[in-house]
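[worker-b] picked up task from shared queue
[worker-b] task type: protein-ligand structure
[worker-b] ligand name resolved to flavin-adenine dinucleotide; SMILES cross-checked against name lookup, match
[worker-b] sequence length check passed
[worker-b] input payload:
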Amino acid sequence: MTATDILIVGAGPVGAALALLLKDSGRTVRLLEARAGAATDGRTLALSHGSRLILESCDAWPDATATTPITHIHVSHKGAFGRSVLSADECEVPALGYVIAYSTLQAIMDDRLAAAGIEVSRGAKVDDIAVGNANIRTGYRLGETPGSVEARLLVLADGGANLNRVPGLTLTERDYGQTALVGQVELDQPHQGMAWERFTPDGPAALLPKGSAREGRYSLVWTTAPEAVAQLLALEPSAFLERLTRHFGERAGRFISVGKRASFPLRLRVATPRVAERIAVVGAAAQTLHPVAGQGFNMGLRDAADLARLVIGAGEDVGAATVLAAFAAARAADTRLGVRFTDSLVDLFSTDHPVLTVGRGLGLAALDVLPPLRRALARRMVYGR
Ligand SMILES: Cc1cc2nc3c(=O)[nH]c(=O)nc-3n(C[C@H](O)[C@H](O)[C@H](O)COP(=O)(O)OP(=O)(O)OC[C@H]3O[C@@H](n4cnc5c(N)ncnc54)[C@H](O)[C@@H]3O)c2cc1C
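[worker-b] inference finished, payload out:
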């Protein structure tokens, strides 16, 4: 048995960011991570300007070659007349967001953890949690070898793998009946920093720009019914591109190639409350969202920033009930609004009811002619709250 002030379970992007935000806190921090090697996850993340500020504050912001700034977002709806373009200039920020591959961000975080000398046990899968009086004991397996760590505060940043071991949590869940297909595509037109979001009755499809503004590389996120995704994954590249063109149109250019494709089932899951005795829950473990508005990681990062701030200001016992209650209170409004915003976007755009279709068209047209409305939407994308 070893001991630490704070034990973080999961060194994914949120757990790693929390450890980095706490590196000069004077508390001992340790991470247990189930994955033994480098992350190979195929998803791409759009980070908000607010996330950039948090990552910069702990020296974890990647250099310019690893991220692509989004300077404009083109929003449209299949079968409706409206469309709108949000711009960074209008919000007086350098970019509306930044695109980075999950695996690249994770590799950068892993480097920063090593440079900061933070202890990470890789290949250590947590499978037991036991709360004592002044401490919490967490059991894990490293291969066949069992181990345990005692801590004042346990932070679950494991994507939800251990939520069933936390007493008193309620999970709100919703299956959207949609799966996300992700992959890299190339178009014959330069992206010029433009991201494209196209809503369709089957689910939204997005193109996130990659590389320099003169290139036509994008990350595709295409959400639709699980059976349709299974078929799309099985198609030859040329047939896939033909289907994609029919679905997305040629407004961003002509699709010329597609790389490896992968899929992620989508659902909403929110854990309430996000704290229990000596336990705080952060990131995807606390809230797993539909990627339509690119809010998940950005919200998880704000979980980490709020928890770090409260831990740094805490008294001797970082796992005290007062610290945890303050954390739950700090996150309540942001989580509620983010979940509602994301969920209503899915509902509003995932139906082909004629009245709603006209309403959506009018909404997008209104967005285009009303700068304050457009700026309010852009602010949520840029800062999250
Ligand atoms: C297709 C798709 C697109 C997305 N796009 C965006 C976007 O554009 N912008 C955005 O903000 N968000 C986006 N998201 C959401 C984003 O991916 C998540 O919010 C983010 O990955 C959460 O990070 P996390 O560290 O909390 O959890 P995870 O990324 O799930 O990491 C959890 C970590 O815990 C480890 N772990 C699991 N079980 C155990 C265990 N028992 N013991 C120890 N370790 C364990 C895992 O190995 C992993 O490293 C998207 C999601 C999907 C599916």
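[worker-b] attaching auto-annotations
[worker-b] The mean pLDDT is 90.
[worker-b] releasing lock
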